[in-house]
Amino acid sequence: MKRRILFVCTANSARSLMAEALLRHMAGDRFEVASAGTDPSQPHPMALQVLQESGIAVEGLRSKQLAELQDENWDYVITLCEKATNECGRICQPAQQIAWDFRDPVPANRHATFAITLKELKERIGLFTLVHQKETGLKSLDYHPVSVFRALGDDLRLAMLLLIRDQKKLCVYELTTALESAQPKVSRHLATLKEAGLLETDRQGQWVYYCLHPQMPPWLMRLLDDTSDSNAGLIKKELERLKAMDDRPVVRFL
After folding, report:
1. Does one domain contain both 24 and 120?
2. What domain range is 167 assigned to?
3. Pairing of strands 170-171, 207-212
4. What is the CATH number of the domain that holds 66?
5. Could you tell me the CATH number of the domain that includes residue 182?
6. What are the strands, taking DSSP E only, across the chain?
7. Is the residue at 251 inside a domain?
8. What is the pLDDT of residues 204-219, one digit of tens each?
9. pLDDT in tens, 25-84
10. What is the rounded CA–CA span in Å between residue 26 and residue 23?
11. Which of 10, 129, 151, 215 could form a disulfide linkage to 196, CB 3.0–4.6 angstroms apart?
């Protein structure tokens, strides 16, 4: 059964909204997640921008009033500001209360500030999911063939995986160009591949790159190698579009 997580801050326009999208992106197979505000406004454009630049889907994100969700059954309520912490302690029982302290990026109104907040939230959420995994004994990367082939059972996702295998690392911008596909669609498929344990991400400056997951088992690597070697034309046009790009980000291989 999925654990239910509610992120709360004052306006539900940046921190809690980004946390909602991040947890859904990172561990949507293990958690049901939502966010709300004690005094909600509207999603901040820069919050949505940094999420999209990181390959995280923003479809359906909206600022919500806490009253809409407070009576539901939550396993955890994670607050991101003092006001939300004080109010949720009274109205969201019996959920386990967790108080995080993240500075609101909205007053600065700078892209870099929102990007830093997203990075810090990602690190904290990563620790949260890791601790939860250890407590529950969950195994996130079992590479069951049914799950793997379900993830590969789409022509766009297969092309993405083969392109990343060939190029080692690609960002969302490169993939949208190579595949001639819209960014939201590409991001959704990348999220599916990541949830299946086939991809991991690496941030370099403002860019987030996708690469094959290092824990991918040998049988799966052989499958990708054989598929690529036996179907040379499968991503030929996509590779040509990549080579024709004159504004590709410069990736560093460590």
Report:
1. yes
2. 145-244
3. antiparallel
4. 3.40.50.2300
5. 1.10.10.10
6. 3-9, 31-37, 76-79, 96-99, 170-171, 199-204, 207-212
7. no
8. 767 788 999 887 888 9
9. 988 888 999 999 999 999 999 999 999 999 998 999 999 999 898 888 888 899 998 878
10. 5
11. 151
